[in-house]
Amino acid sequence: LFLFLLPSRVGTLYLTATHSIFVVNEAGVRNETWVLHSLVFSAEKQAATPSGCPLIIHCKNFQVLHFVIPRERECHDVHLSLQRLSQPESYEELYCFSYKPNVDEVERRQEWDFLDLKTDYSRMGLPNSLWKLSPVNRHYKVSDTYPADLFVPESATPPVIVGSSKFRSRGRFPALSYYSKENHAAICRSSQPLSGFSARCLEDEQMLEAILRSNPCSDFMYVVDTRPKLNAIANRAAGKGYENEDNYSNIKFQFIGIENIHVMRNSQQKMLEVCELRSPSMSDFLEGLESSGWLKHIKAVLDAGIFIAKAVAEEGVSVLVHCSDGWDRTAQVCSVASVLLDPYYRTIRGIMVLIEKDWISFGHKFSHRCNHLDGDPKEVSPVIDQFLECVWQLMEQFPCAFEFSERLLITIHSHIYSCQYGNFIGNNQRERIELGTHSLWSHLWTNHADYINPLYRPDHSQTQGLLRPSTIPGSRPGFPGIFLHGVCMFSLCMRGFSPGSPASCNSPKTY
Questions:
Q1: Exposed site from 82, 87, 251, 279, fewest CB < 10 Å?
Q2: Nearest to 173 by CA among 147, 196, 198, 154
Q3: Each residue of 63-102: pLDDT tens digit?
Q4: Which of 53, 96, 188, 323 is catalytic?
């Protein structure tokens, strides 16, 4: 809401192959603003006015730039150039392949060794007598969207794993996401079964039985379907659906009710429109925010994570989580539960490990969901945005429990969309292209002092063990935190132009 308080600036807009650069041309002022073309979500050319032709640029990290270009023809040329430059058709056109910081090839390769997920599993006490590292998906032969290395129950044989994969959408069989060495409870994840109305699979039933037996402290396990029940029932007509409790021994089934990617995309758009209102009253803002449904969806994701975390920490019960394909809602709730359960994931290094494990490694479709390439707009959805928003909401309730500040969340969010680093390129581990690109995690760690939360107290009781947040109305912040904070942070850095005070531009000098 601070977007509209800044004065306009006169300057020159340059377009390069990778950036739009606005340079202020005023006496005593030297200010440059660089915006990656990969961050541009849309460029809107409006009808000409007496002062020039307005061009509004909306960015994927919620920056909104408002230019007024003197001549309509020049505005038209800039608009067409931005449309092409912001919608690459192949991975090779992305910025990560031309980004060349001042490091040699040895250092670049070392960046990719900074995070080792086997170290995180080792921290959990794995492998052990109950869980093993399986080579079954080496070369991605069983599931091409899963990581090559997966932990499965010790008793799960390759025929059982392969048989289960054939009964799961996209071959995404149940695999370990989180393990509690204190009570042996585990969080596993998969895709929906291909059960239809009556189909069953002995190997899939044996796989769930193996997960149950891997927790000697419990005689049952939860199966959490994160979808609304009606959606899951509708999937049965397509030969998919959910587990029949009559066919699986000792499971308790739980529907959560998180909406699909299309609902979330529309909700975020409505929420952003509210955030961009010009001088709204507080009642108008709150009414618009409520009608967007955004906070309702954030609450649903948090509630799912809370249920799973309590099942593991308080009941000592293992949980299998899935949605449809197991790479959107499943990633959200597994990672939220991990943040609630484990203080390590509330550190700077830990949150990077968590995103690497539950999002990148397990095949969240970053390039589709984040619109990295010119593709199907129906595949775009703010799934990772919602996870980061959930973490922000938890930070508001537990300010001493997180080593990192909101600045880290905003930076990660921006680079997920910027394509400056190779971490989020592609839709799964098999597709991910590291050759010639740099890693975000190493860069963040080098500058980790910039992201320290001054309120963090590692020896405080609040920072240890399970976090127990409240999501009842009035107990959480009533604002979409990371979005407003991200936009306002950018606006303050801009020192010049915003939707309410457009920047006046001289003719663009470079295309």
A1: 279
A2: 147
A3: 899 999 999 999 999 999 999 999 999 999 999 999 999 9
A4: 323
Instruction: Find the helix or strand (DSSP H, E) in which 42 lies.
Output: strand 40-45
- Residues 223 and 409: their CA atoms lie apart, in Å, by 30
188 is known as an active-site residue = no
Say if strands 186-190 and 175-179 run parallel, antiparallel, or are unpaired.
antiparallel
Binding site as annotated, residues for substrate: 260-261, 323-329
Q: How far is the first Cα of the chain from the last one, in angstroms, to the nearest whole number?
A: 33
**Binding site, residues?**
260-261, 323-329
Residue with tokens 């299998």: 320
**Cα–Cα distance, 460 to 64 (Å, whole number):** 40
DSSP state of 208: H
DSSP category for residue 498: B
In contact, 120 and 353? CB cutoff 8 Å: yes
Please check whether residue 272 is in contact with residue 242, taking contact to mean a CB–CB distance below 8 angstroms. Answer: no
Q: Using an 8 Å Cβ cutoff, are 397 and 340 in contact?
A: no
For residue 151, CA distances in Å to 179, 223, 381 come to 10, 18, 29
The Cα 273–Cα 140 span in angstroms is 42
Contact 503, 7 (CB under 8 A): no
101 CB burial (10 A radius; 0-12, 13-18, 19+) = exposed
Cα dihedral sign, 497-501-506-510:
positive
User: What pLDDT band is residue 495 in, cutting at 50, 70 and 90?
Assistant: very low
Q: What angle, 0 to 180 degrees and rounded to 10, lies between the N-to-C axes of helices 158-166 and 202-213?
A: 120
Question: Could you tell me which of 180, 91, 42 has the C-alpha nearest to residue 437?
Answer: 91
Q: Decide: 336 and 351 in contact? Cβ < 8 Å.
A: no
* DSSP symbol at 451: G
Question: Tokens for 349?
Answer: 């290094």
Rounded Cα–Cα distance for residues 19 and 37 (Å):
5
pLDDT of residue 488: 40
Question: How many other C-beta atoms can be found within 10 angstroms of the C-beta atom of residue 454?
Answer: 6
3-state secondary structure of 126: coil
Quick one: which of 260, 386, 408 has its CA closest to 323? 260
What span, in angstroms and rounded, lies between the C-alpha atoms of 46 and 477? 36
- Identify whether the C-beta of residue 498 lies closer than 8 Å to the C-beta of residue 3: yes
- Look up tokens 């970053």; give the residue: 366
Which pLDDT belongs to residue 484?
Answer: 60
Neighbours of 148 (CB within 10 A): 14
Pair of tokens at residue 61 = 């990290």
Token representation of residue 126? 């794995």
Question: In terms of Cα–Cα distance, which of 138, 257, 242 is closest to 191?
Answer: 242
Identity of the residue numbered 35: V
The answer to whether the beta carbons of residues 412 and 350 sit under 8 Å apart is: no
Q: Which two tokens stand for residue 510?
A: 């470079």
